Amino acid sequence: GSRFKDLYLSGGAYLGGTGAANKLDDYEEGTWTPIVEDATGNAASASVTGFYTKVGRIVFATVEATSINTTGLTSSERLYVDGWPFATSNLAGSPNRTASVYANHISFNGGSAMMAVFGNNSSRCAFLNTQDSATHTTLLVSDLTSGTASMEFSIVYEAP
């Protein structure tokens, strides 16, 4: 009939077995500063916030970027968000992880949904416009209305 109020472990907890792969010994949460940039690493000025929670190797991260000013970026290059708190793991297949993106003052040619896409062993993501199950268009800097463009998304991915 007794209950624990709090449980503090100095070395972690084993879930579902006693092997090393069953040990949960890593939990972390915090903030980070996303960097909106072009393919060559020129950073846009923007109001950006990022939050993350990491449990083991699984990372849940959110990004909010508003008032994205693309002055100084190359308009014909892909748009990226860089500076993630953890790089992605090297999983087979591409893309590594995807997330739907809410976007404002960003225009694509056709399509109905934008998604954030990580590659393997990457610390930055690109954006695709999904036109159908086989056709995707890459988001370019020129697709943003400079100064008023914004995007918000959350993504779950695996860190190494």
Folded structure, characterized:
The chain has strands spanning 13-14, 23-24, 27-32, 35-38, 45-55, 58-69, 79-82, 97-104, 113-118, 124-130, 136-138, 149-158. The model has no long low-confidence stretch (mean pLDDT 84). It has no helices and 12 strands. 26% of the residues are buried. The strands form 2 sheets. Strands 3, 4, 5, 6, 7, 8, 9, 10, 11 and 12 form a 10-stranded antiparallel beta sheet that branches. A two-stranded antiparallel ribbon has the order 1-2. By secondary structure, the chain is mostly beta strands.
Shape: elongated
| Topology pattern, helix = H, strand = E | EEEEEEEEEEEE
Let me know the largest β-sheet.
10 strands, antiparallel
In helices, the fraction of residues equals: under 10%
Low-confidence stretches: none
Regarding quaternary structure, how should these chains be classified? single chain
What number is the mean pLDDT?
84
**What is the helix tally?**
0
End-to-end distance: 42 Å
Strand content: over 45%
SSE class: mainly beta
Give the radius of gyration: 19 Å
Q: What's the number of extended β-strand segments?
A: 12
Defining traits:
0% helix, mainly beta, 12 strands, 160 residues, single chain, two-stranded antiparallel ribbon, ten-stranded antiparallel beta sheet
Structural topology:
Blueprint: E1 13-14, E2 23-24, E3 27-32, E4 35-38, E5 45-55, E6 58-69, E7 79-82, E8 97-104, E9 113-118, E10 124-130, E11 136-138, E12 149-158
Antiparallel strand pairs: 1-2, 3-5, 4-7, 5-6, 6-12, 7-10, 8-9, 8-12, 9-10, 10-11
